[in-house]
């Protein structure tokens, strides 16, 4: 393919205007000995050839019936989402720096921010971050920045890749990370927060539902964090908020999470978006872009990027974050996703997740050799089962049946040996669940 | 004026609906249950479709207008990329699927890493970073970890004042102290000035080549020598890679670490601000520090290797923005080595052609030749209190997106233009004519047209000061 539309006549005219005879003269400034040799990069395919080339590669991936979550979930994506994010006026636009020529992007971001605030019950949302893990890391940095304190308490039941990302982000700061251990109930106990909080704790970061699917008692944990004036950071699955307490209800200061469940495909774990909402008092310390409402010179409503003096293109090394490009198109998917359910529909969606997971949980734990790991836990759409079966074999058999089985937690730590993390969303039909149970029963 | 979602008339029937084929069975303890209303809009699909479609039409986009946004490489985004990326066998894939069920994805990632190595002259690439700034951050963490591993204390990063804002922000984010370096008026670096600040504590120098004024850094061999003699490393900001593909390679110029913006040079769309992808490339001695996992080829199978004890760890969850990675790879397979070189040649040709038409009329601080972009400084031509901002807004009235303005910071009233290779001569000519007319004629004869601009957009000039003074950041 060749995407430069240039005929020789035009080229000759352009050469004349510039005052050159040959295109190579434009590169004369580069020393000859530095010039690249001919590269060895295969290509030059036509559209037809590209389609067959990539179809062939795609056929080496397998689309499976997924009972696996752990941060990325198979959820229904309404047709409208694809239609809107597929509009080239959205996907080929740049960051909306020229506000008057970018009102489409700006208004949808404003709507996105409003929807995320409604969902989380907090005051201010930014325009998106890269993903859930980086949003959690930015929340840690924000907490350190506003508090002037130097330690972060993190739940052991926070997604392991989020913990790793936070560690990477804090690597060269002076901040310390202390891990709160999970109890035998699969939750973080108030007593462990009580024992760990002190005057130097900038924030307590708790995920709910946590990595093991268990919904935490966020109200109690938040109060425990506040006892020493630590900020409370909730890492949440936004879909669960149709049924479970919102961060605003338990006095969280910051809520972050992974937005993939709101209208983005799994696509191997990216691109997705991270969201962040905060209490009003923190908004000037927030990372990332924020859109605000204003008026034009005739008094008409319009939208602009605002509070920009927090950002790198203005503040350079003193910016609240280095983020520039974020995940705008995925956040737009989130906006379109959240606009079409209404309260009842969104709650219903959450309840179907709970119900299907519970149905599956009850069936599996009644099988011989499979037990509930956390007996009295409340969960959303994921749960942990302990088994005496050969886990490798189990997942192999499932894979043979085109099923992506549960995640093996055995390698996480000793107490999770022989444990499986299942996920069941609204996408799984009763017959798919029943056949999963059937296969498990025969192992 | 388009209503806000919460103002759309509610028909009582929401657009989306799912049903359950198992019995609804929800028992949530009171202390865990949501009590507050969600406050989500209720609107029929027809109304939502119109709402979002109408909003989309208020955008100037690359698919509707010329978008000469300097430093952003707003090139045509080939439709074939989007078409292939919609394949379900790329989208309906869970990140924790076993390797044998994701060989296609790993093949693409591995292939792109290899091609980026060849193109850049680096030895290894990692595709995990979600954007250019995250690439910078990762690259700087690698530099920090490297010096730690050889037990050297180096806490400073030299950043020219012409650099993108992300450079100093990323360096600060990675825990470094920033030492600013004053550029020459054409944006180049003086080796003499550099020598004066190149102390033993300098870990690295971050450079953008071509620089943000669009000129090639002809002193790079000397800069590279000075840096390495000092034990410092060289970081290449790949934001302007579109100028040099197949022409000169960062690795050959002496750079040790670099990032690439796939959403610039490799034609993947900007999505109104993302998602992007910021792969980082390093020389072999820095390979142990790259993020985990690494994609490796064992016999004919691809595997993920997490066992890298010196790695900086993870930059985000999972493996990177795969659809962006895929689209970049499709682009490379569409063009190949010859096509990529052709891209850079024509990007530079287009920019030089525009520059040649401007340079006798409007001041060009960096001189009469450029690489893929150039910066005008029309300040001396301005009359009647007209400013560059007014020129930018006036361009919107003529149906163009505005160039980057007021950047780089070292040029007063800067207008930074990057045409890219995918624009025709007719488009370039028409834009040059209009911008020349605005600056040379309208500022003198009809300054009110600039001050009043824009008038053809969906809203008139917006009050940004008020927006920041009394922030309204959500609907009430």
The beta-strand count of chain B equals: 12
Estimate nothing, just give the exact number of structural domains of chain B. Answer: 3
Helix content of chain B: 25-40%
Strand arrangement, major sheet of chain B: 1-7-6-5-4-2-3
Q: What would CATH call the architecture of the largest domain in chain B?
A: 3-Layer(aba) Sandwich
- Class from helix and strand fractions of chain B: alpha/beta
Features:
heterodimer; A: 443 residues; Aspartate Aminotransferase, domain 2; 2 domains; 7-stranded mixed β-sheet; 4-stranded antiparallel β-sheet; 14 helices; B: 476 residues; alpha/beta; Aspartate Aminotransferase, domain 1; 3 domains; 3-stranded antiparallel β-sheet; globular
Explain the overall architecture.
The complex is a heterodimer of chains A (443) and B (476). By secondary structure, chain A is of the alpha/beta class. Chain A has 2 domains: 79-338, Type I PLP-dependent aspartate aminotransferase-like (Major domain) (Aspartate Aminotransferase, domain 2), CATH 3.40.640.10; 345-441, Aspartate Aminotransferase, domain 1 (Alpha-Beta Complex), CATH 3.90.1150.10. Chain A is built from 14 helices and 15 strands. Chain A has helices at residues 8-18, 47-58, 79-85, 88-91, 103-120, 132-147, 160-170, 190-196, 218-226, 312-315, 328-338, 342-365, 391-400, 430-441; strands at 65-66, 124-125, 151-155, 176-180, 201-208, 231-236, 254-258, 274-278, 291-295, 301-305, 370-372, 382-387, 403-404, 407-408, 419-423. In chain A, strands 2-8-7-6-5-3-4 form a 7-stranded mixed beta sheet, with helices on both faces. Chain A is globular, with a radius of gyration of 25 Å. The model of chain A has no long low-confidence stretch (mean pLDDT 97). With 476 residues, chain B is an alpha/beta fold. Chain B has 3 domains: 1-58, no CATH class; 80-335, Type I PLP-dependent aspartate aminotransferase-like (Major domain) (Aspartate Aminotransferase, domain 2, 3-Layer(aba) Sandwich); 343-465, Aspartate Aminotransferase, domain 1 (Alpha-Beta Complex), CATH 3.90.1150.10. In chain B, 36% of the residues lie in helices and 11% in strands. Chain B contains 15 helices and 12 strands. Chain B has a 7-stranded mixed beta sheet with strand order 1-7-6-5-4-2-3, sandwiched between helices. Chain B has a 3-stranded antiparallel beta sheet with strand order 10-12-11, with helices on one face. In chain B, helix 6 links the parallel strand 2 and strand 3 (177-181). Chain B starts with 44 loop residues before the first helix and ends in a 7-residue tail after the last helix. The mean pLDDT of chain B is 96. At the A-B interface, helix 1, helix 2, helix 3, helix 4 and helix 5 of A face helix 1, helix 2, helix 3, helix 4 and helix 5 of B.
């Amino acid at each position: 393919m060749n995407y430069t539309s240039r005929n020789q006549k035009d080229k000759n005219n352009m050469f004349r205007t510039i005052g050159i005879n040959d295109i190579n003269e434009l590169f004369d400034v580069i020393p000859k000995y530095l010039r690249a040799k001919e590269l060895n990069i295969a290509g030059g395919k036509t559209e037809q050839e590209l389609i067959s080339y990539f179809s062939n590669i795609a056929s080496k991936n397998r689309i499976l019936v997924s009972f696996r979550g752990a941060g990325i979930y198979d959820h229904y994506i309404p047709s409208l989402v694809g239609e809107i994010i597929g509009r080239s006026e959205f996907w080929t636009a740049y960051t909306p720096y020229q506000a008057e020529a970018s009102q489409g992007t700006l208004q949808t971001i404003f709507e996105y921010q409003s929807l995320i605030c409604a969902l989380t019950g907090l005051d201010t949302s930014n325009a998106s971050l890269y993903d859930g893990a980086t949003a959690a890391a930015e929340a840690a940095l924000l907490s350190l920045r506003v508090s002037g304190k130097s330690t972060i308490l993190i739940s052991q039941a926070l997604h392991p890749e989020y913990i790793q990302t936070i560690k990477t982000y804090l690597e060269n700061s002076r901040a310390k990370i202390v891990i709160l251990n999970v109890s035998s109930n699969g939750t973080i106990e108030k007593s462990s927060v009580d024992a760990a909080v002190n005057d130097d704790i900038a924030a307590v970061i708790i995920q709910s539902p946590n990595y093991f699917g268990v919904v935490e008692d966020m109200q109690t944990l938040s109060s425990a964090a506040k006892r020493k004036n630590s900020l409370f950071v909730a890492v949440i699955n936004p879909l669960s908020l149709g049924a479970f307490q919102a961060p605003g209800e338990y006095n969280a200061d910051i809520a972050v999470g992974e937005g993939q469940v709101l209208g983005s495909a799994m696509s191997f774990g990216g691109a997705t978006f991270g969201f962040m909402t905060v209490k009003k008092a923190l908004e000037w310390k927030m990372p990332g872009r924020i859109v605000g409402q204003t008026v034009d010179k005739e008094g008409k409503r319009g939208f602009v990027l605002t509070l920009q003096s927090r950002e790198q293109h203005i503040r350079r090394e003193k910016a609240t974050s280095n983020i520039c490009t974020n995940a705008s198109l995925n956040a737009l998917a989130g906006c379109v996703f959240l606009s079409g359910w209404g309260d009842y529909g969104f709650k219903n969606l959450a309840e179907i997740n709970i119900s299907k997971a519970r149905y599956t949980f009850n069936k599996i734990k009644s099988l011989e050799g499979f037990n509930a790991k956390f007996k009295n836990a409340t969960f959303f759409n994921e749960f942990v089962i302990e088994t005496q079966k050969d886990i490798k074999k189990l997942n192999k058999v499932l894979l043979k049946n085109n099923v992506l089985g549960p995640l093996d937690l055995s390698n996480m730590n000793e107490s999770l040996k022989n444990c499986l993390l299942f996920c069941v969303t609204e996408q799984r039909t009763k017959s798919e669940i029943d056949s999963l149970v059937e296969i498990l029963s025969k192992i | 004026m388009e209503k806000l979602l919460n103002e759309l008339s509610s028909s009582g029937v929401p657009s989306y609906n799912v049903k359950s084929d198992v019995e609804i069975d929800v028992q949530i303890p009171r202390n865990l249950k949501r009590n507050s209303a969600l406050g989500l809009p209720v609107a029929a699909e027809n109304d939502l479709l119109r709402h979002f479609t109408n909003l989309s039409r208020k955008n100037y986009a690359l698919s509707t207008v010329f978008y000469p946004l300097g430093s952003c490489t707003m090139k045509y985004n080939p439709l074939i990329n989007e078409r292939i990326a919609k394949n379900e066998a790329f989208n309906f894939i869970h990140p924790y699927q076993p390797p044998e069920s994701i060989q296609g994805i790993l093949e693409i990632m591995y292939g792109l890493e290899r091609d980026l190595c060849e193109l850049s002259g680096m030895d290894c690439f990692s595709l995990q970073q979600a954007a250019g700034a995250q690439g910078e951050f990762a690259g700087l963490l690698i530099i920090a970890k490297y010096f730690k591993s050889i037990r050297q204390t180096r806490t400073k990063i030299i950043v020219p004042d012409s650099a993108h804002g992300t450079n100093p922000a990323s360096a600060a984010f990675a825990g470094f102290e920033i030492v600013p370096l004053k550029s020459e008026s054409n944006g180049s670096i003086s080796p003499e000035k550099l020598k004066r600040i190149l102390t033993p504590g300098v870990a690295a120098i971050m450079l953008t080549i071509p620089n943000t004024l669009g000129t090639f850094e002809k002193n790079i061999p000397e800069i590279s020598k000075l840096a390495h003699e000092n034990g410092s490393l060289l970081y290449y900001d790949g934001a302007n890679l579109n100028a040099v593909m197949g022409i000169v390679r960062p690795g050959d110029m002496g750079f040790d670490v670099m990032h690439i913006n796939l959403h610039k040079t490799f034609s993947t769309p900007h999505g109104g601000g993302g998602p992007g992808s910021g792969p980082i490339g390093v020389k072999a001695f820095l390979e142990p520090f790259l993020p985990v996992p690494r994609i490796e080829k064992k016999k004919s199978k691809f595997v993920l290797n997490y066992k890298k004890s010196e790695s900086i760890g993870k930059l985000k969850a999972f493996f990177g923005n795969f659809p962006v990675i895929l689209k970049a790879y499709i682009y490379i397979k569409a063009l190949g080595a010859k096509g990529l070189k052709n891209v850079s040649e024509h990007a530079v040709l287009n920019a030089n052609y525009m520059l040649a038409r401007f340079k006798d009329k409007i001041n060009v601080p960096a001189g009469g030749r450029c690489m893929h972009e150039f910066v005008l400084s029309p300040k001396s031509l301005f009359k009647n209190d007209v400013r560059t901002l007014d020129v930018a807004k006036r361009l919107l009235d003529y149906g163009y997106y505005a160039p980057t303005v007021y950047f780089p910071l070292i040029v007063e009233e800067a207008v930074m233009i990057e045409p890219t290779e995918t624009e025709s001569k007719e488009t370039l000519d028409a834009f040059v004519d209009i911008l020349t007319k605005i600056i040379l004629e309208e500022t003198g004869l009809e300054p009110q047209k600039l001050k009043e601009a824009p008038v053809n957009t969906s809203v008139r000039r917006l009050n940004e000061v008020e927006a920041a003074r009394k922030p309204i950041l959500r609907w009430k």
